[in-house]
Design brief:
The protein is mainly alpha-helical and 157 residues long. The protein is built from seven helices and four strands. The strands form two sheets. Strands 1-2 form a two-stranded antiparallel sheet. Helix 4 crosses helix 7. The two termini are 39 Å apart.
């Protein structure tokens, strides 16, 4: 058996997919109707046109019986989840670059003052109180500095 995209998924992603699949397999038949795929994809935030959907269904419903097994479903979902992970990597790379720009001395952190400047640039309507609250939330260890992990958590949310 060839390795499907499903093999690239992490355990938590597979268990999330299994829960989703089970929710639609109401009668616990071990498959879902192929025409449910469009609904599921919409719920997962991936909207496709009707003819695209027909192509996807005929591709994943390999035996053409109108029924999609969990295996077929997971291989379809993996395409979208794997693409999403690649996007996240690209975003992290950009953020790392921005962090290095602000970490002028290469200490592995930026000061709260620099963070305040960044936040002001992002939204010039922020009050000093807003900034204080955001800084308190971001500088979780109260060090007066923001390390890469704290910065990343804020920017990716």
């Amino acid at each position: 058996m060839e390795m499907g995209l499903k093999d690239e998924l992490e355990k938590e992603q597979i268990s999330m997919l299994k829960s989703t699949f089970d929710a639609f397999d109401v009668e616990k038949k071990g498959y879902i109707e192929a025409d449910m795929i469009g609904t599921i994809m919409d719920m997962l935030g991936t909207h496709v046109l009707a003819d695209e959907l027909d192509g996807i269904i005929s591709e994943i419903d390999e035996d053409g019986n109108g029924e999609v097994s969990f295996e077929e479903f997971a291989n379809l979902a993996a395409r979208f989840l794997v693409e999403e992970d690649e996007d996240t990597d690209a975003i992290q790379t950009e953020l790392k670059g921005a962090f290095r720009l602000y970490d002028r001395d290469g200490n592995g952190f930026i000061t709260i003052e620099v963070l305040r400047e960044i936040l002001r640039e992002l939204d010039d309507n922020l009050t000093e109180d807003d900034l204080d609250n955001m800084v308190d939330e971001i500088d979780t260890d109260g060090s007066g500095t923001v390390d890469w992990e704290e910065f990343k958590a804020v920017m990716i949310g």
